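Dear Dr. H.,

I hope your travels went smoothly. While you were away I took the liberty of generating a structure for the chain from your last submission, since the lab meeting agenda had it listed for discussion. I wanted you to have the full record in hand beforehand rather than looking at slides cold. The sequence, exactly as received, is reproduced here:
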Amino acid sequence: MAPLRVFSQRAAPRLAQVVSQQARRGMATEKQIFNQIVSTKNIRKITASMKMVSAAKLKGDENRLAAAIPFNAWTSNLCSEPTLVEDATFEELPEKTLIVPFTSDKGLCGGVNSFITRSVKKMITTLESQGKSADVVVVGDKGRGQLNRTHGEKILRSATDVVSPGSFTLASALASEIAAAGADDYDAICIVYNSFVNAAVYNQMYKVITPFNIHGEDGGVLPAYDFDSDKPEAMGDLYEYMIASQLFHSFMDGAASEQSSRMTAMENASKNAGEMIDSLTLRYNRARQARITTELIEIISGASALDD
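The corresponding predicted structure, in token form, is as follows:
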């Protein structure tokens, strides 16, 4: 018992000094660490629930996308095929282009919105270096906020608080909004969106929609067809309908990509929360052991002082 008393008498001042130094440095106490563990567990419950909700929504978005693909198939004969934004030169874009990026109104969905805004910034910079001009009509609050910081003067209009899940009625309203922004004054409309591949992969694509050439040397668009009404007026209506169809397909593609990215992001967040809980639990156990050791030393020191 005597050696233990000698050790406690010698260690008590040093341990008290260490504890006081930790307090001065603002290190977390045992209670604070415990509160952090509780908060992180609550956050993990929320992210796990959001993952399950996104997984359920993704199934519905996949079904709507599967229906939108054949619905929009007729436009492939009248406009260009979708092109990957990565490594694109944008040389096929005309002198004056209206860019329509599709982003979301909500966050916590990984890099879905950042990838689109980054692609739009790259497109604007490339077109300006080629001596061309471009303006933007952005869909989604996140895209508007990110683009407004660097290219606010390029944004003509923005559509936010878009109702989900989307429908062709919504796409038609977006087409009317684009037409109100002066789409007829541009040589082409470029839609930038996320293309859904699977639950883990989505790509940034763009497709170019150009007005119909009615008075071409080969008879223009649809030369073999007769029109009951005025052909320019009919082709104008068909052009607006084609924009609505392309917007509908892009909206369905982007919605599926958003849910898949949110599901992956929430899974990663839950995993990171679990790792943080393990780390905090280890710190909590160390702090608890240090407190118990301090209390034992104080008891032994007090008993030793009474014996003396």
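Two observations you may find useful: The longest strand covers residues 188-198. The chain is about 60% helix and 15% strand.

With kind regards,
E. W.
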